[in-house]
Amino acid sequence: MVVRENIKTATRRQVEDHLSANVVARSELMIAIAEEIQKNGWTQSQAADLLGVGQPRISDLMQGRVDRFTVDMLMIWLQKLGKDVSVQVRDNVFSCAEKVELILFVCGTPDQRILDNVSSLFGRANDKYSMRIVDVLKAPDEAASMGIKSTPSLLKVSPQPMVTLTGDLSAASVRWQLAVADRNRN
Fold first, then answer.
1. 136 and 144 in contact (C-beta within 8 Å)?
2. Where are the alpha helices (DSSP H) in the chain?
3. Tens-digit pLDDT profile for residues 106-128
4. What number does CATH give the domain 100-170?
C-alpha cells in the first residue's frame, strides 16, 4: 500500500530517537485514517469535508508528513470516522531482569553508529546485554541458519521471545518494527 510506505518512509526520515515513540504513535494513527479513507473510496476532498479540514491536510496525511500532525488531532479524526482508539503500554522487548543475549549480523566491520544504536536500546547500560558480532561474509552458513536475509540484522536470542530486527537499528526503527509486528500478530 502506497500510503503505508509513504508514512513508513517519512517516519524513518524525520525521527529523532527521543521522539520516536511519539512519531510511531502518530504514524500508526495516520495509517488507520488513510486506510479508512481508502476503504470508503473517498477522495481527499470528501475526506477533508468529513473531517472538517482543508484538502491539503489530507494530502499531507497521505504523503506521510508525520511532523504536521499531533496525536490529539489524529485521535479526534479517528473519532469522527467512528473509530475507538486505545493506548497499549507494554514492556520493552529489551527490558528484562536477565541479561539479554544478542547477535549482530553485518557485512564486514560493524558501523559504530549501529553499535551506538544497539547500546541506546538499553539506555547505554552495556551490562544489560551481551552481543556477539557475526560477519556474514565469513559465516554465511550461520546467517542462513538463523534466517538472516539482510544486514545489519540484530537477533535477540534470549530471553524469549526471539526477535529479529533489521535496518539502521535506531530506537525509532526498532519501535516501528515492533509496532508493525504487534499489529500483524493481532
1. no
2. 2-14, 20-40, 44-51, 55-62, 71-80, 112-121, 140-145, 171-185
3. 999 998 988 988 888 777 778 88
4. 3.40.30.10
Distance CA 137, CA 151 (A): 11
Q: What is the mean pLDDT of residues 132-147?
A: 93
pLDDT digits (tens, 9 = 90+) for 29-73: 999 999 999 999 999 999 999 999 999 999 999 998 888 999 999
Per DSSP bridges, beta strands 129-135 and 153-158 are unpaired
Q: Is residue 103 within 8 Å of residue 96, measured between CB atoms? A: no
Question: What is the rounded CA–CA span in Å between residue 88 and residue 66?
Answer: 20
Amino acid 14: pLDDT: 46
* C-alpha cell, 125: 547500560
Rounded to whole angstroms, how far apart are CA atoms 121 and 112? 14
Residues of the chain within CATH 3.40.30.10 domain(s) are 100-170
Phi, psi of 143 (to 5 degrees): -60, -45
CB proximity list for 154: less than 8 A, separation 6 or greater: 102, 103, 104, 105, 118, 164, 165, 166, 169
Pick the CATH number of 2-80 from 1.50.40.10, 1.10.260.40, 3.40.50.720, 2.40.50.100: 1.10.260.40
